[in-house]
């Protein structure tokens, strides 16, 4: 009886924090129907409505808010107790919930996870991939990985990459049909493909001009929120690409893309950071992940800068 009540209370906190049955169900590994049924049973057993539901949102009622005020500290204490117990294991164990942008998932985590799991087989990493910057506290994530300038100041942030280097590139076929640009301003006569963030702004094309970093207005026939589409289009001679060096490096090495305007590029800056709220700093599984990423994440992140929806 107690276990069933505890599970339903945990489900209620998850739905309230996520503001969505669908997101909470994914977080808990349940079907939306099962989660909705559990909340309904909890409300019926208490004789009071805890959540107001509409077709667009889910929000706690007054009674639900009061219950959340009491439940959240309790669940945090339970998590802390479990974390402390795990510290006595021979190897760290438990579930880590991360939120990352799509490029981080593809080019940072994917190449490193096989060896990490071989070293720490009892850790489960639950990754949510989202191009939009996520509130890790409200979403009940243990940590996130984003461009450093996007990390909130109240988070503990650990650099896991060197500063990011940018490159302008085009395919040999494209350059065979168009005069190679000699200065950044020459790009105004080229088909410059642009990355648009989920928030609607564009990745700025920045260059060192007259000793200062300046943003250049460019135009082109292709705008996309998917960096992979832009890279493929560049290889297929559609237009000129602006991206991180390490993202384009394999294609440059293969001769499928040619770097342009190298002496005009701004110096490397920012970088990827793993960040987390202070209450998670004693989590042993998080500590070993941080140490692993800092040791194994080679110079330069393999992603398109700024895909978190901001410039």
Q: What does this entry look like structurally?
A:
- By secondary structure, this protein is an alpha/beta fold.
- The chain folds into three domains: 2-74, Arc Repressor Mutant, subunit A (Orthogonal Bundle); 94-163 and 270-296, Periplasmic binding protein-like II (D-Maltodextrin-Binding Protein, domain 2, 3-Layer(aba) Sandwich), CATH 3.40.190.10; 166-264, 3-Layer(aba) Sandwich (D-Maltodextrin-Binding Protein, domain 2).
- The chain is 39% helix and 19% strand.
- It has helices at 2-18, 21-28, 32-46, 62-86, 102-119, 172-177, 227-235, 245-253, 284-296, and strands at 51-53, 58-60, 94-100, 123-129, 143-147, 156-159, 166-170, 194-195, 205-209, 212-216, 223-224, 241-244, 258-260, 272-276.
- The strands form five sheets. Strands 4-3-5-14-6 form a five-stranded mixed β-sheet, covered by helices on one side.
- Strand 3, helix 5 and strand 4 (123-129) form a beta-alpha-beta unit.
- It is elongated, with a radius of gyration of 23 Å.
List the helices and strands and how they pair.
Layout: H1 2-18, H2 21-28, H3 32-46, E1 51-53, E2 58-60, H4 62-86, E3 94-100, H5 102-119, E4 123-129, E5 143-147, E6 156-159, E7 166-170, H6 172-177, E8 194-195, E9 205-209, E10 212-216, E11 223-224, H7 227-235, E12 241-244, H8 245-253, E13 258-260, E14 272-276, H9 284-296
Parallel strand pairs: 3-4, 3-5, 8-11
Antiparallel strand pairs: 1-2, 5-14, 6-14, 7-12, 7-13, 9-10
The tally of domains stands at: 3
Number of strands: 14
Tell me the fraction of residues in β-strands, as a range: 15-25%
Mean pLDDT across residues: 85
Task: Assign the CATH topology of the largest domain.
Answer: D-Maltodextrin-Binding Protein, domain 2
Taking all Cα atoms into account, the compactness measure Rg is 23 Å
Top CATH class of the largest domain: Alpha Beta
């Amino acid at each position: 009886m107690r276990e069933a009540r505890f599970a339903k209370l945990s489900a209620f906190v998850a739905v309230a924090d996520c503001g969505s049955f669908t997101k909470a169900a994914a977080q808990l590994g349940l079907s939306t129907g099962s989660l909705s049924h559990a909340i309904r049973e909890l409300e019926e057993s208490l004789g009071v409505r805890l959540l107001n539901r509409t077709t667009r949102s889910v929000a706690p009622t007054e009674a639900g808010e009061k219950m959340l005020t009491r439940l959240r500290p309790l669940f945090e204490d339970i998590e802390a107790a479990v974390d402390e117990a795990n510290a006595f294991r021979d190897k760290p164990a438990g579930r880590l919930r991360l939120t990352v942008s799509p490029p981080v998932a593809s080019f940072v985590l994917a190449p490193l996870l096989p060896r990490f799991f071989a070293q720490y087989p009892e850790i489960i990493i639950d990754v949510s991939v989202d191009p939009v910057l996520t509130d890790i506290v409200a979403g009940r994530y243990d940590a996130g990985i984003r461009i450093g300038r996007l990390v909130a100041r109240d988070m503990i942030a650990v650099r896991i990459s060197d500063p990011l280097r940018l490159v302008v590139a085009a395919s040999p076929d494209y350059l065979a049909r168009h005069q190679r640009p000699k200065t950044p301003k020459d790009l105004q006569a080229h088909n410059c493909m642009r990355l648009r963030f989920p928030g609607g702004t564009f990745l700025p094309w920045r260059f060192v001009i007259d000793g200062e970093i300046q943003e250049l207005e460019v135009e082109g026939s292709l705008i996309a929120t998917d960096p992979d589409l832009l890279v493929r289009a560049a290889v297929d001679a559609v237009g000129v690409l602006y991206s991180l060096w390490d993202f384009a490096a394999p294609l440059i090495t293969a001769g499928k893309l040619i770097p342009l305007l190298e002496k005009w590029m701004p110096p490397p800056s920012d970088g990827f950071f793993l960040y987390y709220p202070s209450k998670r700093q004693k989590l042993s599984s998080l500590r070993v992940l941080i140490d692993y990423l800092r040791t194994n994440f080679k110079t330069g992140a393999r992603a398109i800068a700024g895909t978190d929806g901001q410039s």
